[in-house]
Automatic annotation (TrEMBL), chain A:
<dbReference type="InterPro" id="IPR006886">
    <property type="entry name" value="RNA_pol_III_Rpc5"/>
</dbReference>
<feature type="compositionally biased region" description="Acidic residues">
    <location>
        <begin position="51"/>
        <end position="67"/>
    </location>
</feature>
<dbReference type="Pfam" id="PF04801">
    <property type="entry name" value="RPC5"/>
</dbReference>
<feature type="region of interest" description="Disordered">
    <location>
        <begin position="1"/>
        <end position="67"/>
    </location>
</feature>
<protein>
    <submittedName>
        <fullName>Uncharacterized protein</fullName>
    </submittedName>
</protein>
<feature type="compositionally biased region" description="Acidic residues">
    <location>
        <begin position="10"/>
        <end position="35"/>
    </location>
</feature>
Automatic annotation (TrEMBL), chain B:
<dbReference type="InterPro" id="IPR007641">
    <property type="entry name" value="RNA_pol_Rpb2_7"/>
</dbReference>
<dbReference type="InterPro" id="IPR007120">
    <property type="entry name" value="DNA-dir_RNAP_su2_dom"/>
</dbReference>
<dbReference type="Pfam" id="PF04560">
    <property type="entry name" value="RNA_pol_Rpb2_7"/>
</dbReference>
<protein>
    <recommendedName>
        <fullName>DNA-directed RNA polymerase subunit beta</fullName>
        <ecNumber>2.7.7.6</ecNumber>
    </recommendedName>
</protein>
<dbReference type="InterPro" id="IPR007644">
    <property type="entry name" value="RNA_pol_bsu_protrusion"/>
</dbReference>
<dbReference type="Pfam" id="PF00562">
    <property type="entry name" value="RNA_pol_Rpb2_6"/>
</dbReference>
<dbReference type="InterPro" id="IPR037034">
    <property type="entry name" value="RNA_pol_Rpb2_2_sf"/>
</dbReference>
<dbReference type="Pfam" id="PF04565">
    <property type="entry name" value="RNA_pol_Rpb2_3"/>
</dbReference>
<dbReference type="InterPro" id="IPR007645">
    <property type="entry name" value="RNA_pol_Rpb2_3"/>
</dbReference>
């Protein structure tokens, strides 16, 4: 789908869409993004579906009920912004009446080959936190880790309005961040190892005749992992990219997008019919 | 693009001269003059011939085969593209392209042996399969085009067949019948049909409940190219588990979801229940399961599952890896996860669970297995595709092994060319395909599946029986099971499957037939549709968070959730509009289901669908102008689709629409209009005139009998040499036709004659549905038929260079041939036209006495000794030699076929039937002089007893008689089309105008006394079929004859000249009557009486007056017992049981 053939959108629809997003996002309203390359980060409060409008516009010809109030110029950037959307699953969208802020983040890790995000959120050890238990059972865990795989998307954009102009920035990947209890797995592993040490397997104690054979290169049973197993192996072996978390960079980001798109004029490369023909 | 290509295609259509369409331009077409006024309400049925012109009756078979050879084959080789060597990592062989029956260099198709020649010469009608390959030889990459890897049997009249698009003259040149529908294969000379198989749809969730056991289960049969497996989500004591064959235990659903990465209980709850508190209450208990098992992390869950997996693997995996593999590929196998994110899988399992929870809450939320919308039809193309992929994989495997074998050799003199070993295995594909089609055993290694009885020999009893076979659907259900559900008539069958045509007895309701206007879809690409959905406003499922999943309607593409939509109605309407404008394939269906809050889109193959006229704002979109254009040949059926006037609906989408039966019934809320109501019947039931007046089982009976009627088979019937062929000598088209009869060309190849029937009692030989036949009618040719029977002989060659020979005829002293050789010619074969009587020889074959030893190299001149093995004619009546054919079969052995013909006139006991399920045998043949006659002197051909009517309620037969009579008087052919046809009052009017009674009754005079009969007799023409059951083939008697070797009792069965059995029940009667001597005679004396020597002392049997046990002849008594009894005693002895006979004198001395 080419970006160029975006048709113009009215303000009402724009607003509609903002609400759409709010509905869809639900509790993961505060969408953050990090630019991994240069470490700057900012937050965008809107996201929209690029081309859901084709059909609707054709269907909604009720000009009288729904007049066009204003037409806004559209800018698309999309050169080197690497936007990632985080969806905080399991977190309420609203705290009281106010939309929830995204949590404080102490560390962020990314595996660029596997698109694996991990962020650490420090736990509030003042309330609902049993320090004794944490120390005794779970190696004194004091952070919550959220983990998510960035999923590719087609035609999702982040947008903001500035000076009565709409700016669209393509989104690279969307990740649903879910709690990841590494400390449990860690404790399990150590416990298993201890168990193995304590009650050694009787079979392993017995003296055994060891026959040695040289592994053939042509052994068909050599490990050829495929599919998901391979992906897991790659992810396990891949090193984390430690990233800094930067707050309050949204304005800066906005400016950079505005600057970048200045002077570029979007021209529709095809008309509506061609567009639909290309789709199906 | 799509639209453009289609347009081009339709232009080509118009330029091709087409006889069937030329017919439309003739002054009178199908009872309609070209100048007649066009009335949409009545004439929209013209769409039907237009549909059949494009689609044809067996189009589903052809479509599916064409799809296979053109599209599916390419997909198969793409999926199995590479052959790599384990030895040489550099080596590779890649399949680039595949073609059937056409070389890449030539623009035309390869020459194939014509189908009729294949039939006669017992060959397989097949075309070579060519592949283009690319492989390494040493350091070079070599491309090779048109490498033949085997031969593919070709479906007749498919686009690879030489009969494709052939006109009548070309068909005649190739000895083919232009009316033959094709759609079958010719393998080793026999015509084989792959019946349509009915199955539960794949990759769809089916929810069922067992109320007695209090179980709800959702199951899905996942089917991909590699594997087939079934996953269940079931309830057990109110808790929900996941079950799969390769996982040893049922896994609590919460654990499964945790293994898929849905770790928090909140999210699990959101995915399964949404905001519905009643579902939440039902489901909550499951969340405890995982904490009871101490499973909190994905790794724990995966290890839990991994420990329970029971698959055999070559490569050892850790428990965690087993768990990942199980979730990623084994469970719900059709959604294979390639990456890290299991969310798609989690959603699918969650949706299954949700359906289970819904059914637990409301037991009505279950699916119906028998609903036609949940069925898929598997056609020839799909079945062959499964088979081919299996064979191709085996071929590649063998190929790889032989490559490895060569490459393994340490120092080869030459660079190895892999092409050299490709031809070695090409026979595997050819013979694998041939064997499967000829035996009907479909064995697929990769699914570990064995299926028998997939193919059947095409029944050539009559044209209609062949046609009926092509539209037949067989079900996977066991016939023996006493279940009513799958056998019942489903309302969703309407218009898709024939409501009348099903066999009686064990297969009743399991074997079905397609209705006249059905189409079966082939697979369509999913990706573009998915893309289109997103454009139409569907939000991608991967981006939706769990909490808002169930707020909106879900969009399911082929059963898999792809997104959600806020405005489902609008979405569905827009999608349909795109389909109507031709942007999307017309066979993709979309419908919404408000109970499940779902929009379902189906692109998969095997769905049954049918065309309907689109209604908009209470107006049918098809107007008289369109029909005029259609009649003028300006547009065809595809244009109706393109113009958005007609669309295909599958069973599920039909449920989403409001369909008017007739144009007068259309109201604004309606969405569609039937093209013609009579299309709810199939081709075979369409023969019945006025079926809507008959009691419904009668129509079903006729459907079974119509296939047994003797008639014309095909235009090439006299050129055929079939095992057994019945032909009617003077077939007539019925006086009362139906539109279906014309559409399927039954009127050109009819099976029956119009008999004048008097419904009255005569002579008493007409009780129990027996018919009285007029002897003069028989003399004139009524019911006359012929049978043609084939004998095949192969002249074998043996390893010692001897071979079978045909001897000449033997002559007596006068130079005349001996009696046995009277019909032989000098070549030792029967001469065409000669009569052969029972005992005479018509192929004088001899085989060498010694065919095993190696030939003696010393004396080559020694004459080989031969033993005569002539083919002798046996039969109660003599036959004539009709054709003698000598040819060479595939394996270069001489093949001789002799066709014997017998002409038969009806005789006592031959079976006849009308088209209303009313069969009867000929009870008496009466001289014409003795038969009743009417005022005009018309004498009936058949007298039928009136008792046949009251209980059978075949009113259609009566109306057929009246319409037929009116037609005779009027000089017209009348119509008895279902839900229409010539109106009874119009027919009565004609009768009255011609001076007959309105009711069809006539005054008749007795042929014997000449007096008026006391009642008016219902009298007129009815179409009668002669059925294949004839006395000549069944009559049997035996005074003495062959006996079975083991028991010395008479053999069984007519073919072995067997005895007539006095069975158990007959025996009971004789015992009850006390006729002991009769019993003794029947059961022993006339059967297997045997005299034994019994020793009175030891009670065992001896022989020749000598007891072997007592070693004496002292106490030997001779007595007669059945041989079977003696056998029993000896068999008992052989297992160490000694039956001892204690003898007494019955008659005291």
């Amino acid at each position: 789908m080419s970006i160029d053939n975006k048709l113009f959108v009215t303000e009402e629809e724009e607003e509609d869409r903002t609400q759409d997003c709010a509905d869809v996002e639900d509790e993961s309203n505060d969408v953050d993004m990090i630019e991994s390359e240069n470490g700057t980060s900012c937050a965008v409060d809107d996201r929209q579906n690029e081309n859901e409008e084709e059909g609707e516009e054709a269907g909604e010809d009720d000009e009288e009920d729904d007049p066009v109030v204003e037409e806004l110029p559209l800018n698309i950037s999309g050169n080197d912004e690497s936007l990632h959307v985080f969806q905080y699953a399991n977190r309420p969208r609203l705290i009281g009446r106010k939309p929830a802020e995204h949590p404080f983040i102490s560390a962020a890790r990314y595996k660029p080959k596997s698109y694996l995000w991990e962020i650490d959120i420090p736990l509030d050890d003042q309330s609902f936190y049993n320090k004794d238990k944490a120390d005794a059972d779970w190696n004194g865990v004091n952070i919550q880790t959220l983990k998510g795989v960035g999923v590719e998307n087609d035609g999702q954009y982040a947008a903001f309005v500035k000076d009565m102009q709409v700016y669209l920035v393509p989104i690279e990947r969307v990740a649903q961040l879910k709690p990841y209890f590494r400390y449990i797995d860690d404790v399990n592993v150590t416990r298993k190892q201890e168990d193995a040490k304590r009650n050694p397997n009787p079979s392993s104690q017995r003296a055994q005749v060891v026959t040695m054979s040289v592994k053939s290169v042509n052994d068909p049973s050599q490990n050829r992992l495929t599919g998901s197993l391979l992906a897991h192996k790659v992810a396990d072996e891949e090193a984390n990219l430690e990233l800094n978390w930067a707050e309050d960079t949204f304005e800066q980001f906005k400016d950079s997008v505005v600057k970048e798109t200045e002077g570029k004029i979007l021209i529709a490369s095809e008309n509506q019919e061609d567009y639909i023909d290309n789709l199906v | 693009m799509v639209a453009a290509t289609k347009k081009r295609k339709s232009h080509v259509h118009k330029h091709v001269k087409d006889e069937a369409f030329e017919d439309l331009l003739k002054p009178v077409y199908k009872g309609k003059k070209i100048t007649d006024e066009i009335n949409t309400a009545q004439d929209k049925w013209h769409l039907l011939p237009a549909f059949l012109k494009v689609k044809g009756l067996v189009k589903q078979h052809l479509d599916s085969f064409n799809y296979f050879v053109d599209t599916d084959l390419k997909k198969i080789i793409q999926a199995n593209q590479l052959i790599l060597s384990d030895v040489d990592p550099e080596f590779y062989l890649k399949y680039v392209d595949i073609r059937v029956g056409k070389k890449s260099s030539s623009s035309t198709k390869d020459y194939l042996t014509p189908p009729h020649e294949c039939r006669l010469r017992d060959m397989t009608y097949s075309a070579p399969i060519y592949v283009d390959i690319e492989y390494t030889r040493g350091r070079n990459i070599i491309m090779h085009k048109d490498v033949e890897i085997g031969r593919m049997p070709i479906m007749l009249r498919s686009n690879k067949c030489i009969l494709f698009d052939a006109d009548e003259s070309k068909m005649a040149k190739l000895n083919e019948c232009p009316l033959d529908p094709g759609g079958y294969f010719i393998v080793n000379g026999t015509e084989k049909v792959i019946l349509v198989q009915e199955q539960l749809s794949k990759n769809r969730i089916i929810v069922e409940a067992d109320e007695k056991k209090n179980i709800v289960q959702a199951s899905v049969t996942s089917s991909t190219h590699e594997r087939k497996s079934k996953t269940y989500v079931i309830t057990k004591n109110g808790k929900i588990y996941l079950k799969h064959n390769s996982i040893a235990e049922e896994i609590p659903i919460a654990v499964v979801l945790k293994a898929c990465g849905i770790l928090s209980d909140l999210e699990i709850m959101q995915l399964v229940c949404g905001n519905d508190s009643s579902y939440q209450d039902l489901f909550a208990v499951n969340l405890e399961e995982s904490s009871k098992l101490d499973i909190y992390t994905q790794q724990q869950a995966l290890e839990y599952i991994g420990a329970k997996v029971k698959t055999m693997r070559r490569q050892k995996l850790s428990i965690l890896q087993e768990g990942i593999e199980a979730i990623a590929t084994t469970v719900i196998a059709h959604l294979t996860v390639e990456a890290l994110d299991f969310r798609e899988k989690a959603l699918y399992i969650a949706m299954m669970t949700r359906r289970v929870v819904m059914a637990m809450y409301n037991p009505k939320m279950i699916d119906d297995r028998d609903y036609v919308g949940n069925k898929r039809l598997e056609l020839a193309g799909q079945l062959i595709s499964l088979l081919f992929e299996d064979l191709f994989k085996k071929f590649n495997n063998d190929f790889k092994l032989s490559i490895d074998k060569v490459l393994k050799k340490p120092n080869r003199a030459m660079e190895y060319d892999a092409l050299l070993s490709i031809n070695v295995h090409s026979n595997n594909i050819t013979s694998g395909l041939n064997r499967a089609i000829s035996t009907g055993n479909w064995s697929l290694k990769r699914f570990k599946m064995e299926r028998a009885g997939v193919t059947h020999v095409l029944s050539r009893l009559s044209y209609i029986s062949a046609l009926g076979m092509m539209t037949r659907i067989s079900s996977q259900f066991e016939k023996s099971r006493k279940v009513s559900g799958p056998r019942a008539l489903q309302p969703s069958q309407f218009g898709m499957l024939c409501t009348a045509d099903t066999p009686e007895g064990e297969a009743c309701g399991l074997v079905k037939n397609l209705a006249l206007m059905t189409h079966i879809t082939t697979d369509d690409e999913e990706e573009p549709i998915k893309k289109l959905c997103f454009v139409l406003g569907v939000e991608d499922i991967t981006l939706i968070d769990s909490a808002s999943l169930h707020l909106n309607y879900g969009v399911y593409l082929n059963g898999t959730l792809i997104g959600s939509i806020r405005f489902p109605i609008k979405f569905v309407t827009q999608f349909r509009n795109l389909r109507r404008t031709g942007k999307v394939s017309e066979f993709i269906s979309i419908y919404s289901n408000s109970h499940q809050m779902a929009v379902h889109i189906a692109t998969d193959g095997g769905r049954i669908c049918r065309p309907l006229i689109i209604v908009s704002d209470g107006q049918s979109l098809v107007k008289d102008t369109h029909l005029r254009q259609l009649l003028d040949g300006e547009i065809d059926f595809d244009d109706f689709l393109k113009l958005g006037l007609v669309e295909y609906l599958d069973v599920n989408e039909e449920n989403d629409s409001y369909i008017a039966l007739y144009e007068k019934d259309v109201i604004p809320s309606m969405t569609h209009l039937e093209i013609e109501p009579f299309t709810i019947l199939g081709a075979v039931a369409g023969l019945i005139p006025y079926p809507h007046h008959n009691q419904s089982p009668r129509n079903t009976y006729q459907c079974a009998m119509g296939k047994q009627a003797i008639g014309a088979i095909a235009y090439n019937q006299f050129k055929r040499i079939d095992t057994l062929l019945y032909l009617m000598t003077y077939p007539q088209q019925p006086m009362v036709k139906t539109k279906t009869i014309e559409l399927i060309d039954y009127d050109k190849l009819p099976a029956g004659q119009n008999a004048t029937v008097a419904v009255m009692s005569y002579s008493g030989y007409d009780i129990e549905d027996a018919l009285v036949l007029n002897k003069s009618s028989i003399d004139r040719g009524f019911g006359r038929c012929e049978t043609r029977r084939k004998t095949t002989t192969v002249l074998k060659r043996y390893a010692n260079h001897t071979q079978d020979i045909i001897g000449g005829m033997r002559v007596d002293e006068n130079g005349e041939p001996i009696w046995q050789h009277q019909s032989l010619g000098p070549d030792g074969l029967g001469e065409v036209g000669m009569r052969v009587k029972s005992g005479q020889i018509y192929i004088n074959k001899s085989v060498p006495t010694n065919s095993t030893d190696s030939p003696n190299p010393n004396n080559v001149n020694v004459q080989t000794q031969y033993r005569e093995t002539p083919v002798i004619y046996r039969g109660p009546e003599p036959s004539h030699i009709d054709q003698v054919m000598m040819s060479v079969s595939d394996n270069d052995q001489a093949l001789i076929k002799v066709l014997l013909r017998q002409s038969r006139r009806p005789e006592l006991g031959d079976k006849f039937s009308s088209r209303h399920g009313q069969k009867g045998v000929c009870g008496i043949i009466v001289k014409q002089e003795d038969m009743p006659f009417n005022d005009q002197g018309i004498v009936p051909d058949i007298i039928m007893n009136p008792h046949g009517f009251p209980s059978r309620m075949t009113v259609g037969k009566m109306i057929e008689l009246i319409s037929g009579k009116a037609g005779v008087m009027n000089g017209t052919l009348e119509y008895g089309t279902c839900f229409g046809g010539s109106k009874l009052d119009e027919m009565s009017k004609i009768l009255v105008d011609q001076g007959f009674s309105y009711s069809g009754k006539d005054m008749l005079y007795s042929g014997i006394t000449g007096e008026c009969l006391q009642a008016y007799i219902f009298f007129g023409p009815i179409y009668y079929q002669k059925l294949k059951h004839m006395v000549l083939d069944k009559m049997h008697a035996r005074a003495r004859g062959p006996r079975a070797v083991l028991t010395r009792q008479p053999t069984e069965g007519r073919s072995r000249d067997g005895g007539l059995r006095l069975g158990e029940m007959e025996r009971d009667c004789v015992i009850a009557y006390g006729a002991s001597q009769l019993l003794l005679e029947r059961l022993m004396i006339s059967s297997d009486a045997f005299e034994v020597d019994v020793c009175d002392k030891c009670g065992l049997m001896g022989y020749s007056g000598w007891c072997t046990t007592c070693k004496s002849a002292e106490n030997i008594i001779k007595m007669t017992i059945p041989y079977a009894a003696k056998l029993l005693f000896q068999e008992l002895l052989s297992m160490n049981i000694a039956p001892r006979l204690r003898l007494e004198d019955i008659f005291q001395q």
